[in-house]
């Protein structure tokens, strides 16, 4: 294998090891051949999360269901939790963990909302959501009702909840919760393909979203006692310009020490909710230049991710969009000003893919965040074409060249990248703790992919695990700076949610290239700063707030 | 010789009626004895005692031998002898129409159809006349009557299809279907039919019809190129870009000097994200015909996709030189100038784009961003508000048409062939 890999131009290969790893459960989501409703098309997210805190990433797959199908009792599709066996395989512990729920699942995000030291999960649904409190003994309890985060409407219509993220927007040390909403959906009143007729490339397809009444996102404030309060109106969330929310991303985009929220909206302006430091937010996406594509047109935003692409301490935003459009990379100019750098960066070449999962990942540990998009067409009616732009699509992998330019290296990224699947959510994490980032992908009506990144590059790396004390226990929102010896500085944040409906490893990963050590700083939401100099490479550094 | 000819004509005149003589003149002309026929026609044209029928007949023959102006008095005389003589109205109307005197020709054609409502020719020509002057409602009505009188005439179905097509009536497809069934050798008509099938979202049928042109022995290279163009467009519509490219490449092989064919190949390549190859084809288009503004515009967008903004600016400017009212080119030039850092230049172009097309939200949004950067908060807010309003209006239009909603701007449509 080493010899084989050495011959590849990148020195890395992504190999799908899902089957070998025991990740065999199929995600069910809508009808396989043709869909009546848009709800059947969006698919599900996935989480790389260490639920048992053993230092090895486990995997949680959100699952969906189908209209007009009655599953035999006990055989209903359910979300799945796989425990990492630390040998490249996983064991399905869903039932034991108490996570078996069927329904139209969408997103998953992680965070220790009750600061008990055990990471909790929030899963969005069309209808009531689930807040899975981690009991610390391998089991979870759905406390959504008790906590007040079921997201019911006063009209009785079921909300179509989408992307989610935990964040401590008021920096009180307790994680709050943001939930995107697509529409308030009722199959009894929703238009059918033939009622439009709703056409795409001459095919009858599920109608929308144009013409459908958009939903309203929700912000829940954590009361610190295990309950939440809906503060959407008070916080100004309902004034957001766009609707049909999908991907939700939290980051301090204006470097003011407070978490802002970026929402990838479908077919309407995306939102940048600037944190006003007083419990309110203002949508500044239009003025900031992150609402539209480079040509001033609204895009069909799906997944979203952020990284310090240029190594200047500011977070760039990357968003996947519909086919016939590029993905979008916004350069952060500071002070809530962004510039679309899609075309300058070399990302303007790909327009035929329909992107969902979106993640920065430094796959070669050279210190520059690369980009992966997981793709697949919305409509199963789109034939399996003799091309890359059918229902199943390959991924796109961009290599960050370190000068603001990206090179499309998809075809050199290995069979895991080029295999065509109906991809949706994807998460990044190093499931085998070899220091090289891997990828897990949730696919529609298919088994998942676990893309193991095999490398001969032997670059160094460092992971930082944050443990909040005054800040929230997960350290979500903490900003981590890493300066490898002799290399450019890097920065990232501990982030809940992001990508498309997914949760990547909460530990922050840095590629160190050949540096043997790095200086690390953690800027906590509380304002505490921890500085650790000369950290040795190739380890997981646990930073407890205020202990350094 | 001339003496004998005149003598024989005189002999004829003395013995027969003008109707007989006109019949004889026609017989001579039809038999190929043009000299004798014309001489006899001149004599009978001067002869007294004509009837409405004979005068109309003489007029018709004069018109048939290319002497339209000489024919008109005979039609008029025929009508003075019998105002209800439908053929004279018809022939007078047709002659005037051919002479571009639509004002006087149309009432004559109308009168003929009114006097003889079951006559196919009268209905057909009246319908065609209406189509000529773009009176589609009357054209469709008359042509429908014509095909009802005689459904075996492909030309009437073709005209009806054309009129319905212009009206945006999908009945055009059925009309073309009749036409191609009646005239299976007419490749041009089948190509037009196939092209319409693509436009009416029936790409599979379009490909099948185009294939018939390709399969027909004796079809010309140009007809085959046209058929391949339609196949290419059909596959573009179904998102099968590789097949589209293949068809367009076949069209280019059959018609290598056609700028339009190369242009459409470039579009297919662009849709496949083969940007460099697309760029080369657009350059080929320009080498074949530097006066196509769309080619410069599309070449500009290809440069833009590759991040070569100076080259994109140059091509957009060339497109605008060729067509000053090219709103999309002003819009793209504005965007490119913005990305190149020339905010003032971008403002000028975006304002021009908005002046030319005040219904597209994109230029308002981009202008809003630039005004924000320049510190004009009020101006910026106004632009964003207008952009949002227009987007809402567009959404209502596009609610059931994702195809149009998702693919615009960066992806120009293929050009219609100039040979149709």
Provide the fold topology.
The complex is a heterodimer of chains A (548) and B (420).
Chain A: H1 2-6, E1 12-16, H2 18-21, E2 46-49, E3 58-61, E4 80-84, E5 90-92, H3 94-97, E6 105-111, E7 120-125, E8 130-134, E9 140-142, H4 144-147, E10 158-167, E11 176-185, E12 199-200, E13 203-204, E14 218-222, E15 228-230, H5 232-235, E16 245-251, E17 260-265, E18 271-275, E19 281-283, H6 285-288, E20 304-307, E21 316-319, E22 328-334, E23 337-340, E24 355-361, E25 370-375, E26 396-400, E27 406-408, H7 415-418, E28 423-429, E29 438-443, E30 449-455, E31 460-467, E32 479-484, E33 490-493, E34 508-513, E35 517-523, E36 529-536, E37 539-544
Chain B: H1 2-15, H2 18-31, H3 34-46, H4 52-64, H5 68-81, H6 86-98, H7 102-115, H8 120-132, H9 136-149, H10 154-167, H11 171-182, H12 187-199, H13 203-215, H14 221-237, H15 241-254, H16 259-271, H17 275-288, H18 293-305, H19 309-322, H20 327-339, H21 343-356, H22 361-373, H23 377-398, H24 402-406
Keywords:
heterodimer; A: 548 residues; mainly beta; four-stranded antiparallel β-sheet; 7 helices; 36% strand; B: 420 residues; mainly alpha; 24 helices; disordered N terminus
Description:
The complex is a heterodimer of chains A (548) and B (420). Chain A starts with a helix and ends with a strand. Helices cover 5% and strands 36% of the residues of chain A. Chain A is globular and about 65 Å long. Chain A is mostly beta strands. Chain A has a 4-stranded antiparallel beta sheet. A 4-stranded antiparallel beta sheet of chain A has the order 2-3-4-5. In chain A, strands 6-7-8-9 form a 4-stranded antiparallel beta sheet. With 420 residues, chain B is mainly α. Chain B is 78% helix and 0% strand. Chain B contains 24 helices and no strands. In chain B, helix 8 (120-132) packs parallel to helix 10. Chain B starts with a helix and ends in a 14-residue tail after the last helix. At the A-B interface, strand 12 and strand 23 of A face helix 15, helix 20, helix 22, helix 23 and helix 24 of B.
